[in-house]
Design a protein that fits this description.
It is a single chain. The protein has a single domain, classed as NAD(P)-binding Rossmann-like Domain (Rossmann fold, 3-Layer(aba) Sandwich), CATH 3.40.50.720. The chain is built from eight helices and seven strands. The chain has a seven-stranded parallel β-sheet, with helices on both faces. α3 links the parallel β4 and β5. The longest helix has 29 residues. It starts with 13 loop residues before the first strand and ends in an 8-residue tail after the last strand.
């Protein structure tokens, strides 16, 4: 093999990861940074990874989303890869779930993603290319007691992605979903050892995922190797949700 036979490196892309200051979002942002991409991260209170553009944004505020995209576009150009990761939980049993418990989770996880995808698609349609990757959850496929609001919001992301895959595909824009299972993050650190052990017994691989393993699935979906993959739900759950 000669030097001329080696493919040229892809030009750095403008990547936006929401909720990228910790956990899965941070790992995703760091993975794109490691590839040499221009990465922007939305946070509410700061703390983006080193090398990323730290953009303050509340995705429940349409005007804040517009300002965030304008900031990213000014610094990095139109967003070519959107990773909609920001989300919240307000877990409680159905009969105890308040109207706010329901509406705040839906507005952040589902409606917030709608706002992001709508705004990102404007630039992608002009470019005639793009990757939209939505971070869902195995809970959206299996359901979970005490998480009616969260499960509904995460299941809804599949409907968004598959509709966008049909709507935007002719412009070389792919839309896919990554559905993690239990991942070693701040959210799972609060569980007791007994709770963690009980969860592991349900997972065929017998362990939690690392955030980096979820990030690997995301960067693959954004790669040239996944150019013909759209409308897919990629589970990263150790087999927990197989068959769904």
């Amino acid at each position: 093999m000669t030097v001329s036979d080696i493919p040229a490196a892809s030009a750095p892309r403008s990547v936006l990861v929401t909720g990228g200051n910790r956990g899965i979002g941070r790992a995703i942002a760091e993975a794109f940074l490691a590839q040499g991409d221009k990465v922007a991260v939305t946070t509410r209170n700061g703390g983006a990874p080193e090398g990323a553009l730290d953009v303050r944004c509340d995705i429940t505020d349409a005007e804040a989303v517009e300002r965030a995209f304008q900031e990213v576009e000014a610094a990095h150009g139109p967003v070519e890869v959107l990773v909609a990761n920001a989300g919240i939980t307000k877990d409680t049993l159905l009969l105890r779930m308040s109207e706010d418990d329901w509406s705040s989770v839906i507005d952040t996880n589902l409606t917030g993603t709608f706002r992001l995808a709508k705004r990102a698609s404007k630039g992608m349609l002009r470019l005639r290319r793009g990757r939209i990757i939505l971070i869902s959850s195995v809970v959206g496929m299996l359901g979970s007691a005490g998480q009616v609001n969260y499960a509904a919001s995460k299941a809804g992301l599949v409907g968004i992605a598959r509709s966008l895959a049909r709507e935007l595909g002719s412009r070389s824009i792919t839309t896919n979903v990554v559905a993690p299972g239990f991942v070693e993050t701040d959210m799972t650190d609060v569980l007791t050892d007994d709770q963690k052990s009980a969860i592991r017994t349900q997972v065929p691989l017998g362990r939690y995922a690392s955030p980096a393993e979820v990030a690997s699935a995301v960067t693959w979906l954004a790669s040239d190797g996944a150019a013909y993959v759209t409308g897919a739900v990629i589970p990263v759950d150790g087999g927990l949700g197989m068959g769904h």
